[in-house]
Write a structure and sequence with these properties.
- This protein has 231 residues and is of the alpha/beta class.
- It has two domains: 33 residues, no CATH class; 178 residues, Rossmann fold (3-Layer(aba) Sandwich), CATH 3.40.50.2020.
- It is built from eight helices and nine strands.
- Strands 1, 2, 3, 4, 5, 8 and 9 form a seven-stranded mixed β-sheet that branches.
- Strand 2 and strand 3 form a beta hairpin.
- Helix 4 crosses helix 6.
- The longest helix has 17 residues.
- It is globular and about 50 Å long.
């Protein structure tokens, strides 16, 4: 009966694919676009000498970017559920290596949060927390100044744009913890690196990034060694 009711609702109120605009039968993307999403095998890493794993279910592609745009700019908070579940599945194989993990979303500046009405990274982190049981520390990190959107800048400009944009508010929540930073996408990695530099002052045990999609296909071996979560 439940399936039949869902079928009727889809016939009366069909949901369009957020990528191509075709009917999607109540899903965010149609089956054709879903087949174009690129899965990520293994973990990537942030640039730089420190080994900072980037765990994601997908590599960046046009369909995934359309889903993120829907989530961030078109009021599509429902996308956080689907993406958050896939992120949870990507994180699950690594959870056993975490001694005392916490989730820390990359925060929006309060002015952008007021305009948008929600923080997409926190929505994703909440979904991951609900699926994995890992505590969410949504107030540990704040964005202390407004920045330009990273998506419109090149790598060098991104670094200058985001450097010093974050500050710790509840450092005690992170001391000795395995911090998993949560964001929607990782491209150049400059935002995540800026967050890491700020979060290191809290004395975490280890640091990793969880996102819906990453640009790099580079893989690293993920294991616990010498007290570090992923090195």
């Amino acid at each position: 009966m439940k399936g039949f009711c869902r079928f009727l609702l889809d016939c009366i109120f069909p949901r369009e694919c957020v990528s191509c605009g075709d009917l999607a039968g109540g899903r965010l993307v149609c089956s054709r676009c879903a087949g174009r999403i690129r899965s990520a095998a293994g973990a990537g890493r942030l640039p730089g000498p420190a080994v900072t794993p980037v765990i994601s279910p997908f590599l960046t592609c046009d369909v995934l970017l359309d889903m993120i745009r829907f989530l961030k700019f078109e009021g599509g908070s429902a996308a956080a559920g689907w993406l958050g579940r896939r992120m949870s599945e990507a994180l699950e194989p690594h959870v056993r290596r975490l001694g005392d993990p916490v989730l820390v979303p990359v925060p929006l500046h309060w002015t952008r949060l007021a305009r948008r009405g929600y923080d997409q990274a926190r929505l994703l982190a909440s979904e991951v927390s609900r699926n994995t049981g890992i505590p969410l520390k949504g107030r540990a990190l704040v964005r202390s100044r407004m920045t330009r959107p990273q998506s419109v800048l090149d790598r060098d400009a991104r670094r200058g744009n985001i450097d010093g944009a974050f500050r710790l508010r509840r450092a005690g929540d992170l001391k000795g913890k395995d911090v998993v930073l949560v964001d929607d996408l990782v491209t150049t990695g400059e935002t995540a690196l800026a967050c890491r530099r700020t979060l290191e002052a809290a004395g975490p045990s280890s640091f990793a990034v969880l996102c819906a999609g990453r640009k790099s296909a580079e893989k690293i071996k993920v294991e616990r060694s010498e007290g570090l979560m992923f090195e």
